[in-house]
Design goal:
By secondary structure, this protein is mainly alpha-helical. It has a domain of 147 residues. 82% of the residues lie in helices and 0% in strands. The protein has seven helices and no strands. 23% of the residues are buried.
Length: 212
C-alpha cells in the first residue's frame, strides 16, 4: 500500500511539473504550443465561413464531422465506464491471483481505489466530449447569423469563443483517455504507474509542440 501511495504521488507530481512547464513555455512563446495554433486556425475558419457566400454547406459539413467524432468518443466513454463497473465483480479473484503475498482484504480495497480512479477518468472523458457536442451545436446555429466582421464583431467573437471552447473540451476528453493508460498499468504493480506516466508525458510533449 505504501509503494502504491508513493507511486501515485510521483505520477501526480510528474504531471503537475509537465503542465507547469507547458504553461510557462506557452506564455513565453505562444507559437510553440499546438493548442494556441489550433485556436488561431479555428478563428480563421470562423472568419472565412462567415464571409463566404456558401457558408451554409461548409459550416454544416465541418461541424457535423466534429459532432460525429465527439459523439463517438462520448459513446466509447460510456462503454468503458460500463466495462469498468463490470470489472468490480472480479476484484477479489484478481487481487488474490496477481498479489498472492498481500492480504486479500487490503488488496480488495486497493483495487477498488484503482478502479474508482479509472471510472472517474472515463467519466471525465464522457463529460468533456458531451460538452464539446453542446458547444459545436451552439456554433452550428450562430455561425449562420448575418454578420459583417468589419462592422459588427460580436457574433464573430462569440462564434470563436464557443468553437474554441468546444475544441478545448474535445482535447480534455482525449487527454482523459490518455491518462487512463497509466492507471491501467497501475494494476500490474506500483512501479508501472510512474514509468507509464513518464512515457505518456514524453508523448504529450511531442503532441503539444507545434509541428515544425
Amino acid at each position: 500500500m505504501i509503494d502504491d501511495t508513493i507511486a501515485f504521488s510521483v505520477s501526480c507530481l510528474l504531471v503537475l511539473v509537465y503542465y507547469l512547464y507547458l504553461s510557462r513555455r506557452t506564455r513565453r512563446a505562444p507559437d510553440s504550443s499546438v493548442h494556441a495554433l489550433n485556436a488561431k486556425v479555428r478563428e480563421r475558419w470562423i472568419e472565412m465561413v462567415m464571409a463566404s457566400d456558401r457558408k451554409d454547406i461548409l459550416a454544416i459539413q465541418t461541424l457535423r464531422n466534429s459532432v460525429i467524432a465527439a459523439n463517438f468518443m462520448a459513446s466509447t466513454s460510456v462503454l468503458l465506464i460500463m466495462g469498468t463497473l463490470n470489472l468490480s465483480e472480479k476484484i477479489g479473484q484478481w487481487a488474490l491471483l496477481w498479489h498472492p503475498n498481500i492480504v486479500v482484504p487490503l488488496s480488495n480495497e486497493l483495487w477498488q481505489i484503482k478502479l474508482g480512479l479509472l471510472l472517474l477518468d472515463f467519466s471525465i472523458a464522457f463529460y468533456c466530449f458531451s460538452m464539446a457536442i453542446r458547444f459545436y451545436n451552439h456554433v452550428g446555429y450562430m455561425i449562420n447569423l448575418p454578420n459583417e466582421v468589419s462592422t459588427d464583431t460580436a457574433p464573430y467573437q462569440l462564434n470563436c469563443a464557443y468553437l474554441n471552447r468546444a475544441g478545448r473540451y474535445y482535447t480534455l476528453g482525449n487527454r482523459a483517455f490518455f491518462f487512463s493508460l497509466p492507471i491501467i498499468m497501475w494494476f500490474f504493480g506500483p512501479y508501472c504507474l510512474p514509468l507509464a506516466t513518464l512515457g505518456l508525458i514524453v508523448g504529450l510533449a511531442m503532441l503539444d509542440k507545434t509541428p515544425s
